[in-house]
Design brief:
Radius of gyration: 25 Å
Helix content: 55-70%
Low-confidence stretches: 3-23
Strand content: 5-15%
Structural class: mainly alpha
Number of strands: 3
Number of domains: 1
Mean pLDDT: 85
Distance between the termini: 29 Å
Largest sheet: 3 strands, mixed
Order of helices and strands: HEEHHHEH
Amino acid sequence: MNRLAAISCLGLGLLVGAAADHTLAPARADGNTTTVKVGVIDLERTLYETPAGKKASESFEKTRKTKQDELDKEQKDLQKAAADLDKQATVLKPEVLKQKRDELEQKFVDVQQLYMKLEKDLAGERAKLIQELLKKASPIVQDIAKAEGVNIIVDQSAVVWADPSTDLTSKLNAKMK
């Protein structure tokens, strides 16, 4: 998570945490106050508990498994090459041994780079998955907010603490298909 997003999440969390009675009363320019009611939704739970979320999670899991299989194959090939080099080390000329070790080190670097690339790809896939779920959930969240008289709904991941009574996840999950 980038630094700005982390700071924003912390700020939202502190805002919600400060609202022990679930309302805030910010001062307005005219000296009056407005009551703000805050709700919390756990998108992770929605992702794992609803049919739409489960379908998206299954798709993500297939992608993750494919990428993991690719990485596992590369790691096994690297381990085999290292074991082969260890067996041959006593019979190889020093310059040939050095060259093969250099090649092996380069393969190791390549596998590390592949790992980093796959991690980045998976993080992007995960973010896309959450965004798609959020698009489907957004109209339902708006309806829940109106029905509950809530002015702001934040994701649980952006909250340091919230009273359990502010959690609207069950209501969202009941309406998600």
